[in-house]
């Protein structure tokens, strides 16, 4: 692929994501008007996705916007899905747009990074898999990224709403430890059996 082609594809992707953000922002602005909530809407591109954040423009807005987040972000997830559908209806393409309201996802991301980092430490020390609590797709993605950055692998197991991340031990280290243990056991067995020893003369 030539540099011109790559540059053209990159520009096309950015234009598409910008369009997603604008369409999504229009939908959310109408939604805020309908439910009579205030807030500023910021549009960005983050990790190859259109990203929209609704932030409080006045002191009282933060408390009101909390209703659009809901318990454990449940309402936020629903609003995000509705926004994606609105974008898809306008553009004809499936959207992976990310929505944050009142800084909930940003705070949750920081919290999840700590959880995932602690799980990584436990796996490296124990050599055993560690299962995290059930999470939504956004939360699992954050944990997967942290685990991958630490050089380990992770998987999602179970079905919604109990789907969760499982952090796996490093396979090479585990195999090396197993080999080391096996060799020690063999040497010990040889000693117990007296194999390799020179018999004492009478």
Please supply descriptive tags for the structure shown above.
202 residues, alpha+beta, disordered C terminus, GMP Synthetase, Chain A, domain 3, Ribosomal Protein S8, Chain: A, domain 1, 2 domains, three-stranded antiparallel β-sheet, three-stranded mixed β-sheet, single chain, 6 helices
Word description of this protein:
The protein is α+β, with helices and mostly antiparallel strands and 202 residues long. The chain folds into two domains: 3-102, GMP Synthetase, Chain A, domain 3, CATH 3.30.300.20; 108-172, Ribosomal Protein S8, Chain: A, domain 1 (2-Layer Sandwich). It is 56% helix and 16% strand. It contains six helices and six strands, in the order αββααβαβαββα. A three-stranded mixed β-sheet has the order 1-2-3, sandwiched between helices. The chain has a three-stranded antiparallel β-sheet with strand order 4-6-5, covered by helices on one side. α1 crosses α3 and α4 (104-126) crosses α5. The radius of gyration is 26 Å and the shape is globular. Mean pLDDT is 84; it is low at 174-202.
Low-confidence stretches: 174-202
* Biggest sheet details: 3 strands, mixed
Q: What integer value in Å does the Rg equal?
A: 26 Å
Shape: globular
DSSP helical segment count: 6
Strand content: 15-25%
Strand order of the largest sheet: 1-2-3
**Helix proportion range:** 55-70%
Number of domains: 2
CATH-defined fold name of the largest domain: GMP Synthetase, Chain A, domain 3
CATH class of the largest domain: Alpha Beta
Terminus-to-terminus distance: 82 Å
Topology as a string of helices (H) and strands (E): HEEHHEHEHEEH
